[in-house]
Amino acid sequence: MTAAFRRSAAALTAILPAALTAALTTVLTAVLLCLLAAAPAGAASSYRYWSFWQQSSGSWSYQQQGAAVHIPADGSVDGWRFTLSTDGGKDTERPRSAPDFAASCANTPAQRGKKRVAVLLDFGTPADSSSAATPPAARSACAVLDPTASSADALAAVAPPLRYDTSGLICAIAGYPSAGCGEVAAAPAPAKPAGNGPNLGLLAGGALVLLLGAGAWWQARRR
User: Fold this and answer.
1) Which whole-number Å values give the CA distances from 65 to 89, 100, 106, 167, 172, in the listed order?
2) Of 8, 38, 151, 153, which sees the most CB atoms within 10 A?
3) From first to last of its 223 residues, what are the pLDDT tens digits of the chain?
4) What is the pTM of this model?
5) How far is residue 46's CA from residue 43's CA, in Å, rounded to a whole number?
6) Contact call for residues 47 and 182 (beta carbons, < 8 A)
7) Which helix (H) or strand (E) holds 28?
8) Residue 212 exposed, middle or buried by CB count within 10 Å (0-12, 13-18, 19+)
9) Based on C-alpha coordinates, what's the Rg of the chain?
């Protein structure tokens, strides 16, 4: 429809006065832009997965490295959050509890030649779950590890059973969820315009008819 507007406007430029052509084109372009802006946009897909976080200055920071290669320091906190996210990155939902090493490892004494890493597990909300079932309550634990152990080692020490897919993506922590792995959730259908709302095709067509009618009127007037 926009291509038709452009062709019609170009054709009428030769037969209408410049002022009238400019006025009609401006009005019709504004109408078309308003109609296009009102058209519903498609919804983005969402993914269910375990996001991985690290303590950073008392808050959560999205972890760019995978758990198998990240080596946490003694006294650090790993965070895991099961979520339904359209972003799949740093703007996804964070763990809902603040990182707190002292509270998580208060009952786990330090050992010579070992490091302690706190691990917080947030299983998300019913809305995040594919079955809308109530997820387990969030909890934390303290892993005692060799100095070179990874975050994946810390997770395996405190939250079995773990489930991975063939590419190494973590699918389940502490057995949750029992099925699925990073699947795409069904995207909601685009909202339909209300029954009394404007019809984009009809209004745009009417605007085109108005433009062509103006040209016909001017030609008749000249004759």
Assistant:
1) 12, 21, 28, 15, 18
2) 151
3) 455 545 555 554 555 555 555 555 565 565 555 554 554 555 567 889 999 999 988 899 999 899 999 999 999 999 999 998 876 666 789 999 999 999 999 999 999 999 999 999 999 999 888 877 789 999 999 999 999 999 999 999 999 999 999 999 999 999 999 998 988 876 544 445 555 555 555 555 555 556 556 656 556 566 5
4) 0.65
5) 9
6) yes
7) helix 18-38
8) middle
9) 30
**CA separation, residue 90 to residues 61, 93, 125, 151, 208 (Å):** 8, 8, 19, 18, 46
How far apart CA 158 and CA 173 sit, in angstroms, is 10
CA dihedral 75, 163, 97, 91 (to 10 degrees): 100
Whole-number Cα distances in Å, 189 to 41, 43, 44, 198: 10, 7, 10, 19
In a 10 Å sphere around its CB, with 0-12 CB exposed, 13-18 middle and 19+ buried, how is residue 48 labelled?
Answer: buried
User: Taking Cα atoms as reference points, which of 205, 207, 193 lies closest to residue 37?
Assistant: 193
Q: How far is CA 121 from CA 50, 52, 91, 162, in A?
A: 10, 10, 18, 13
Determine the residue type at 138.
A
DSSP state of 176: B
